[in-house]
Amino acid sequence: MPTFKLNGQDIPFEPGDTIIRAAWRAGVEIPHYCWHPGLSVAANCRMCLVHIKSGRQMALPVLVWDEAKQKYVPGTKPKLQPACQIAAAEGMEVDSVGEEVEQAHAHVQEFLLLNHPVDCPICDQAGECKLQDYYEEHQHTLKRKRTEPVHKPKAVRFGPTIVYDAERCIMCTRCIRFCDEVARDHVLDMRERGNRNEIVLAPGRQLDHKYTLMTEHVCPVGALTSRDFRFKARVWFLKTVPGVCSGCATGCTTHVDFDPRNGKVYRLRPRDNEACNQYWMCDDGMMSYKELHEGRVLTPVRGRGDEAELLLVEEAVDAAVAALRGVDHGKIGVVLSALHSNEDNFVLARLAEELGTDKLYLAARDAKLEGWEGDEILRHADPNPNRAGAHAAAGRTIEESVEDLVSDVLAGEVRAVIALGPWCGERAESLAPLAQLDAFICLSANEGTLPELASLLIPAASWAEQSGSFTNAKGISQEFERAVPAPNGVLPAWQTLVHVAAGLGLNLRYGRTSEVRNHMNAKPAASAAAPV
Amino acid sequence: MSDEFQPLLTSRYGIEGSHTLAVAEKHGAYRTARRALTMMSPEQIKEEVKKASLRGRGGAGFPAGVKWGFLNPKEGEEVYLVVNGDESEPGTFKDRTIMNQDPHRLIEGILITCWAIGAHTAYIYVRGELKHSIDSLDAALAEARTKGYVGDRPFGKPHPIHIWTHSGAGAYICGEETALLNSLEGRRGEPRLKPPFPAVKGAFGMPTIVNNVETISAVPDIVELGGERWCSLSRLAPTDGGVRLYGISGHVKKPGIYEAPVGITMRELIYDYGGGMLHDDHPLKAVIPGGSSTPVLRPDWTVDAPNEDHPLHAWHGKSELDVPMGVDTYRALGTMLGTCCATVMDDTVNMVEACRNLMRFYRHESCGQCTPCREGGAWLVDVLDGLLSGRGKVDDVNMLVDIANNMMGNTICAFGEGTAMPLLGFVQRFADEFVEVAKRGLPLDVRHDESTRALVKGGVAA
Ligand SMILES: Cc1cc2nc3c(=O)[nH]c(=O)nc-3n(C[C@H](O)[C@H](O)[C@H](O)COP(=O)(O)O)c2cc1C
Ligand code: SF4
Ligand code: SF4
Ligand code: FES
Questions:
Q1: Where are the domains of chain A?
Q2: Cross-chain residue pair A171–B368, CB shorter than 8 Å
Q3: A3-112: which CATH topology?
Q4: Nearest to A147 among B369, B382, B412 (CB)
């Protein structure tokens, strides 16, 4: 690979790379606002100015103070170049430090803050704002402008998800470029000129495409804020673990931001991933963290309707064992879930194997039923994060749906069911026969159609409450980590299943996630990604 | 002013009905185009233009022949000619005289140029406020189309040439060639990143030559006289050839547009062409040589070029006014020739006020795309407001220089320099006056424009 020198350090680059991109890939940051690895080059913020040593001096003079003559005389300085625009070239020597460059950085930074409200104490971006970071790194001077800053519209509602503050905006156009180039919807643009310009909506429009929260994410400052996250948390109190979105079969990798003090997840952000989602996520995916805190199943329930009784979490396993005892193992239907992790599905498939039943079914969300639409950008037509993983756990493609399970129940071939919840692709009406089963055990983190039908509902840890993995439609298995503790001592579904197996005297011994994973990976049939 | 000077660009000015095809043609219009298209090869024409050392008349002074040489269209690419008639630089009013009084000269130049560079389509982008110029061009184009000069077979040549006018919408920045192209394409008038330059990727993504109205209007004369002869009309031949339009406005007796050889001096322009200072008791204080973006000159400043290698050594010790007006000579002088339209100021003008007046224009016209220009330009006005209203400090003058120095070279387009450069020029040449105003506020014995009066009275700055 060819290389160039940045501050004396060799940086490899691919032909066509700009200086900033090659440096970024090598883990060296050149300060920047408008550049984003996933967007076109605008080169408008001028924060990334660097000195290319082979470059020329400026043709036009600047003024320098001549002490001896006690007056300003014409002087010269090197012509600095934006690192985001200039292509790297073999042997090029570039400096992003040094007096002239640092002076340029300091001044661009000062320019950007001239009319900025500096309302950090009430700004959600504080703590992860480039203006703050670069002020510390590159400016460090007091404000020299003594007059009132330019006033512009504040708290402009751009749509159901995003609020805009024009005074905080640095006009980097990242949001416009994101909508144009990634979301492919020219809904944002700039109006006016000079320092009165502002970002506006296309006439008659709202910012309402499927990727609006990404505009907030690419905004390097607090100009765009998410109506969901606004005023809810200060980012320095949040901790982050790597996650995988449960929204669809694309499996965008995420940062899960949570507050360890209250065990709450506050938002999801995309985690850069060339192979999968690049730098982006869709709105539904980003909002999918809501399911962690809403509509949760927190207590085991035995019986249905008026006869339902609440159990203690510790009583759930015994109840399950009791329900299954006496049922012909060969007539137990086992429902894997395209919504549950590889670990949950694998252990359930193993349980089926131990029970000696071949009656496997797959519960999966149905796009039409959920009003889900895929697109050419990120959103997969399949709104399930782990269909491929469920097939892999079974060691085969599971053709049988919950509808087939209903037929088998009606035919008397299935007498009891163990299912991973919460959703399946069938309407509740067509599932009525399942409500007749004496033993319908459902393990679920959330309420849904299957939990509704269960004769024994056992709460399960959500994806944020355990580490696990999803296998996306491309067959890539991606791991996520535990962010927050499960409430009420609730266990991951696979652990409950292990306990149930033990109660039934079956040989299914896994203590830790790593044991499940080792076994999963050692079983080629089960770990190979099955086609969807 | 030499008596034997034969007007070329302005030869038909003042003739009754010169804007009509009949009158223009009676006085020589389209003769050269007919000859060029029927008897000359594109290469021959390009060669003549190269020999002519025709420096662009739009401000930067780039040699037109060299620019045309950058064209290298790929298979399937169409070449466009775009004529820049945006003429919005304060103090500049030359192109409109061609468009108003002799539109057929421009059309003739376009025909020859299109033939030379292999273009079939030309756009004339005209500043929106110049309604009269647009109407005049449209009428002239209609006539030329009827005659068949503009159309599928100009002068019988199977090389279709179509010409369209396009009106701007009131933004100075749309004179910058890439902002112009964006505007032409119906986009926001913001300069594009370069490279690619228009000759590689211009209008609608195609190789495009952008030239000023006057540049293109000079082409027929160059072809008619031959590049060398036309070039030699200049006093600065062979590097800066031919004749050009000079504008002069401000405190002179005869403001207007005058044609003269390249390389007359500012002194000649003011005192011979411009008729001298407006009021005999108010002497010349400063002159902005070529549109508001060019640093101001001072008659009592002398050329400091003791070194024999210095391009201005011949004028060492002489007044700045005595340096011939050329693209390179004015660069060497620390200013620019720009559009070659001078703004003359007598001693009733306060330089801080004049500077603020211009800076307000730049604040208003910056496209706002890049940080140093958007914020720096407005800050300059802010600091100047402070100085003029008596809230200033002497150190503010240093701050002005610091702001402008850090706009220089750091912006996307030359607008940033067009803002900072004149400011630096004012401060360099009139530092004492800035310090004086900083210390004592605005002197009361000079005339003030309305917005400054509001400032001094404590009103809100516009
Ligand atoms: C801010 C700005 C404004 C400009 N305005 C004009 C203009 O009004 N007319 C013009 O011909 N050139 C203008 N120019 C110069 C053009 O960018 C370009 O250089 C010119 O049209 C090229 O033509 P020429 O080579 O024939 O001079 C402007 C440049 C800048 C940076
Ligand atoms: S809103 Fe944010 S992303 Fe959009 S231009 Fe302003 S600062 Fe940039
Ligand atoms: S220098 Fe000024 S006019 Fe030019 S692109 Fe930047 S903001 Fe726009
Ligand atoms: S990152 Fe904004 S100009 Fe390069």
A1: 3-112, 156-292, 301-522
A2: yes
A3: Ubiquitin-like (UB roll) (3.10.20)
A4: B382
How far does the centroid of ligand 4 lie from the alpha carbon of residue A65, in Å?
Answer: 30
State residue A527's pLDDT score. Answer: 38
Contacts of B75 (CB under 8 A, 6+ apart): none
Chain B residues inside the 8 Å CB shell of A192: 368
Query: What are the angstrom distances between the C-alpha of B145 and each of A484, B139, B162?
Result: 77, 10, 9
**Touching check for A145 and chain B: CB below 8 Å?**
yes
ipTM for this prediction: 0.94
| Predicted pLDDT at B87 | 98
**Pairing verdict, β A9-12 and A416-420:** unpaired
Phi, psi (deg, nearest 5) at residue B245: -90, 135
pLDDT tens per residue, range A67-125: 999 999 999 999 999 999 999 999 999 999 999 999 999 999 999 999 999 999 999 99
Nearest CA among A304, A324, A299, A291 for reference residue A436: A304
Give residue A530's pLDDT.
39
The answer to whether the Cβ–Cβ distance between A80 and B410 falls below 8 Å is yes
A197 in B contact zone (CB under 8 Å)? yes
Q: Whole-angstrom Cα distance, residue A164 to residue A158?
A: 7
Ligand 2 centroid to Cα of residue B8, in Å, is 52
Which letter, b or e, does each residue of A267-285 get, where b requires 16 or more Cβ atoms within 10 Å of its Cβ?
A: bbbbbebeebbbbbbbbbb
User: Ligand 4 in contact with A39 (CB < 6 A)?
Assistant: no
Q: Say how far apart CA B38 and CA A168 lie, in whole Å.
A: 61
CATH architecture of A156-292: Single Sheet (2.20)
> What CA–CA distance (Å, rounded) separates A429 from B211?
74
How many inter-chain contacts (A to B, CB under 8 Å) are there? Answer: 124
Q: How remote is the CA of residue B177 from the centroid of ligand 1, in Å?
A: 6
Ligand 2 in contact with A116 (CB < 6 A)? no
For residue B417, the chain A residue with the least C-alpha distance is A60
| Min distance A36 CA to chain B CA atoms (Å) | 16
Name which of A46, A63, A194 is nearest B368 (Cβ-Cβ).
Answer: A194
At residue A64's C-alpha, the angle toward residues A58 and A67, to 5°, is: 150
Ligand nearest to the CA of A24: 4
For residue B406, give the nearest of A73, A104, A195 by CB distance.
A104
Q: Domain A301-522 carries which CATH code?
A: 3.40.50.740
Picking from A216-220, A427-431, B222-226, B245-249, which range would have the lowest pLDDT averaged per residue?
A427-431
Q: Ligand 3 — pocket residues by CB below 6 A?
A: B 173, 191, 366-370, 373-374, 411-413, 415-416
Q: For helices B371-388 and B415-429, give the axis angle rounded to 10 degrees.
A: 30
Of A303, A268, A292, nearest in space to A460 by CA: A292
Dihedral angle, C-alpha A2, A7, A8, A12, nearest 10 °: -20
> Residue B440: its pLDDT value, please?
86
Closest ligand 4 atom, CA of A172?
Answer: 2
Atom of ligand 3 nearest to the CA of B417: 1
Nearest to B371 among A45, A144, A196 (CB): A45
Q: According to the model, what pLDDT value does residue B461 have?
A: 43
Alpha helix (H) ranges present in A31-119? 99-114
Cβ within 8 Å of residue A523, ≥6 positions away: A395
pTM of the model: 0.95
pLDDT at A522: 80
Contact A420, A443 (CB under 8 A): yes
Residues in contact with A317: Cβ distance below 8 Å, sequence separation at least 6, in sequence order: A496, A499, A500, A503
